[in-house]
Amino acid sequence: MSVSASTDAMKSTVTPSSDRRVGDETFITMLVACVAVGLFVVASLAVPNFFQPLTMLNLVTNNWAVISLGVGVTFLLVSGNFDLSVGGIVALSGVLAVWFAQATGGVNALSTGFGFPTWLAIVCALCGALAIGALNALFVVRFKVPSIIVTLGTMLVARGIAQVITQGSQRNTNLPADFGVLGNLTMFGTSVKLPVIGMAILLAVAVFIERKTVFGRLTYWIGANPVAARLSGIDNAWHVTKLYLFSAGVAGMVGILLASEFKSGFSNRGTLMEFDALVIALLGGVAIAGGFGSVIGMFFGALILGVVTTAATGLVLSPDWQFTLKAIAVFLAVTTQTWALARRHR
User: Fold this and answer.
1) Cα–chain-centroid distance for residue 187?
2) In which domain, by residue range, is 149 found?
3) Each residue of 257-278: pLDDT tens digit?
4) Given CA atoms 253, 259, 262, 263 in this order, what sign does their dihedral have?
5) Domains contained in the chain, number
6) CA angle in degrees (0–180, nearest 5) for 242-247-252
């Protein structure tokens, strides 16, 4: 059965409960948005000088990398799969971009690279990121290994390769002058950098794909009922493979942009970003079992995490307490969303 035919079948089998599910997504997104606004108001009352235009702008600009990663993670969660490898891919792609761009004949091993033009170094680094995504898909789709185990393993593999290339340190010398342009280019005469604009474009494209395309709706259907999707003629394996390649590609570009911004390839860059991306998706109402959630909800989840982190910093809380607050926020968010949906369906 073709994809168009399977889509028609999906439309013809829509039940009142599935209509209600779509309504539930809108309901949860509105709930998360209200929580984000409420937390911002509380933080403004509790933290001195918190309620400022610059603070609101920083909530987004300071979290552009995690929000970008959250797009790929959200699509995979909706399909019923995890991707914990994105933090390792961020480190690996940044290190590879620097290594390929460094000139040959440096004074030591860490200052010696391949001497590629910057554009070619970026392409090669992105290929390295996509290789990790393909590895994820291979084990998840072909060998049926649980995605949480596979992607946890590939995260360690990617970061381990980055550690070897940098000898546990970083590469930040002997780079071409144009290497730092992408990560530091400001747009429209403002202080907003290109990566932030890229994040906004990525969000807009992701929302369009999620809401207006067959690809987006099939992602939901695979997550909600993979057996029915397969019996309807949908190639679940190829669809999930594309999602893993997409997530790895986004993580690769994030790593390259961060390497360009700081003009260095750091093997520990992106540490715990994979968990932050998962946290903002869960805060945004994405179901860990698949078939439910939205990119817009994930974005508001990122705002919630940003408010909590920024407020904790403003209150001079230790990093240990910040981790505790993140855990409490996730627990309360998941519990509240479950309770709200249960009451709605009484």
Assistant:
1) 23
2) 3-344
3) 999 999 999 999 999 999 999 9
4) negative
5) 1
6) 120
